[in-house]
Write a structure and sequence with these properties.
Blueprint: E1 3-8, H1 13-24, E2 29-36, H2 40-50, E3 54-57, H3 63-70, E4 76-79, H4 81-87, E5 95-98, H5 106-114, E6 118-121, H6 125-141, E7 145-147, H7 150-159, E8 167-174, H8 184-188, H9 192-195, H10 205-213, H11 215-227, E9 235-239, E10 245-251, E11 256-260, H12 266-273, H13 309-316, H14 320-336, H15 344-355, H16 364-382
Parallel strand pairs: 1-2, 1-5, 2-3, 3-4, 5-6, 6-7, 8-9
Antiparallel strand pairs: 8-10, 10-11
Helix pairs in contact: 2-3, 4-5, 5-6, 6-11, 6-14, 11-13, 14-15, 14-16, 15-16
The protein binds NADPH dihydro-nicotinamide-adenine-dinucleotide phosphate and magnesium ion.
């Protein structure tokens, strides 16, 4: 019997790579639910090929086309973010790949956890926004998260067979993004086209901009804090421009374990879908002799001030990271639409942190309200609106 899987964000970079992995192991995996944001043409193509039981489009204006093409094939269809969250309770799958972008992953992931599904987590924003709540719900539902993010997958792999009490440090690698060698003045003038040119990874637009600002690394530190239940001061980031060492764990005896591989998300996706087991790769293998050197350097928070937001958010706690995430979602779009300059991504976030009320022990409703208030603040601040099908 194949393992049944729901993919949230099947039309994106992680979603399409997940379907590629599934297509290579048809006896092992079956895509039972496919969900996309608004790309109805691609969702239809995927549904025709993979024959899920259900295809969902978040953008309700695209529903009719989805239904008209897929109903004759016996594929159920639905539209809207509420339908997407409701689908997480269906009994016909047991693992959810969360590959939507931004805050949109939060509510469906919570529903999936409450329904006892295992989570293959790509959508790191879920843990950034509400890490404490999510980890509590995971414990209550006795289910678990297997990370898809390459750094966290690497750490997860390094921890196999180890006593968590013997971990002294997590070392998260960062490529440094396209502006690693730029001066601070030069970074102030970069264009969206330059920021979208990631040197190592081909990803969706939002995470590519987050990588350029290095907020992605700050998010990954927050993600690691919750995933591995480790004190923030024991998580460190190091810049490794070749992106071959995907992350490391240091143990109390001084040993450092690392996971290496070519930069290709299909490895962490396979590992997460296979429930932390090793499945054969289809991509080329790593030839270390192709790399004259593997280098490591300290990240520079003067050039990339977004890096400072990880210690800030983790020390402050409460809804601080939720504010950072929401302000960033608007700021990234505003930068892509050339309404703000690159350094204003950071200042939009810090202005939001000053403007939005702090909540020390947020409930789910508090997170939802914080997200909405911050989106509204940042939209007024930047003059940029983000599409709402959340
Ligand atoms: P993409 O932008 O490529 O894809 C996003 C997907 O989410 C698309 O299928 C999109 O649908 C869908 N989507 C967007 N908004 C909604 C919504 N409101 N409801 C339902 N679906 C929605 O992003 P990535 O694949 O790059 O990233 C996905 C997540 O994985 C992010 O959280 C990112 O940080 C994380 N991640 C990505 C990595 C990568 O290599 N790409 C690496 C590590 C983590 P549509 O296109 O149809 O609108
Ligand atoms: Mg990553």
């Amino acid at each position: 019997m194949p393992h049944n899987i729901a993919i949230l964000g099947s039309t994106g970079s992680i979603g399409t790579q997940t379907l590629d992995v599934i297509s290579r192991f048809p006896d092992r995996f079956k895509a039972t639910v496919l969900a996309a944001g608004s790309n109805v043409g691609q969702l239809i193509e995927q549904a025709v090929k993979f024959r899920p039981s259900l295809a969902i489009i978040a953008d309700e204006s695209k529903y009719e086309r989805l239904r008209d093409v897929l109903s004759p094939l016996g594929i159920e269809t639905a539209a809207g973010s509420a339908a997407l969250a409701d689908a997480m309770e269906r009994p016909d799958f047991d693992t959810v790949v969360t590959a939507t972008v931004g805050y949109s992953g939060l509510l469906p992931t919570i529903r999936a956890i409450r329904a006892g599904k295992q989570i293959a987590l790509a959508n790191k924003e879920t843990l950034v926004v509400a890490g404490e709540l999510i980890t509590r719900l995971m414990t209550e539902a006795s289910t678990r998260i297997v990370p898809v993010d390459s750094e966290h997958s690497a750490i997860y792999q390094c921890l196999v067979g180890e006593d968590p009490a013997t971990v002294s440090k997590l070392i998260i690698t960062a490529s440094g993004g396209p502006f690693r060698t730029f001066t601070r003045e030069h970074i102030a003038d970069v264009t969206p086209a330059q920021a979208l040119q990631h040197p190592r990874w081909n990803m969706g637009a939002k995470i590519t901009i987050d990588s350029a600002s290095m907020l992605n690394k700050a998010f990954e530190i927050i993600e690691a804090r919750w995933l591995f239940d480790i004190a923030p001061e024991r998580i460190e980031a190091v810049v490794h421009p070749q992106s071959i060492v995907h992350s490391m764990v240091e143990f109390i005896d001084g040993a450092v374990k690392a996971q290496l591989g070519i930069p290709d998300m299909r490895l962490p996706i396979r590992y997460a879908l296979g429930d932390a087991s090793r499945l054969p790769a289809s991509e080329r293998s790593l030839m270390l002799s192709d790399y004259a050197q593997l280098t490591f350097e300290k990240p520079d928070p003067e050039k990339f001030p977004c890096l400072t937001l990880a210690p800030y958010a983790l020390n402050r706690g409460g809804n601080a990271a939720c504010i950072i995430n929401a302000a960033n979602e608007v700021a990234v779009r505003a930068f892509l639409e050339e309404k703000i300059r690159f350094p204003e991504i950071f200042t939009t976030i810090t202005d939001a942190l000053e403007a939005i009320p702090f909540v020390e022990s947020p409930s789910l409703e508090d997170y939802v309200a914080t997200h909405r208030a911050t989106i509204q603040f940042a939209e007024e601040h930047t003059g940029c609106r983000i599409p709402l099908h959340v």
